[in-house]
Amino acid sequence: MEKDLEKEKLIKRISELESLNDQLASELRFLDDLLRKVGFDQGLVTLKSAAEELIEHENKDFEDPLS
C-alpha cells in the first residue's frame, strides 16, 4: 500500500516535470524565433556568442595595464 502511494507520487512528479519541460522548450523555441526575426542569424546560438564577446571586451577594457 505504501509503495503504491509512493509510486503514485513519483508518477505525478514525473508528469509535472514533463509539463514544465514542454513549457520551457516552447519558450526557448519562441525566443529563438524572435531572435532570428530581429537579426540574430542562428537565434540563441548567435546571441550567446555576441554576449560572450561583449563580456570578453569589457574584461579587457578593465584589465590593469601594469599587469
The strand count comes to 0
Gyration radius, rounded: 22 Å
Order of helices and strands: HH
Strand content: under 5%
- The number of distinct helices, counting runs of at least 4 residues, comes to 2
The pLDDT mean sits at 92
Estimate nothing, just give the exact number of structural domains.
Answer: 1
The shape is elongated
Q: In oligomeric terms, what are we looking at?
A: single chain
- Ends: how far apart? 68 Å
Describe the main β-sheet briefly: none
| Estimated helix fraction | over 70%
- Unreliable stretches covering 5 or more consecutive residues: none
Structural class: mainly alpha
Q: Could you please describe the fold and organization of this structure?
A:
With 67 residues, the chain is an all-alpha fold. It has one domain. It is 81% helix and 0% strand. The chain is built from two helices and no strands. The longest helix has 36 residues. The protein is elongated and about 70 Å long.
Keywords:
single chain; 67 residues; mainly alpha; 2 helices; elongated
Topology:
Blueprint: H1 2-37, H2 44-61
In summary, what is this structure?
Helices cover 81% and strands 0% of the residues. With 67 residues, it is mainly α.
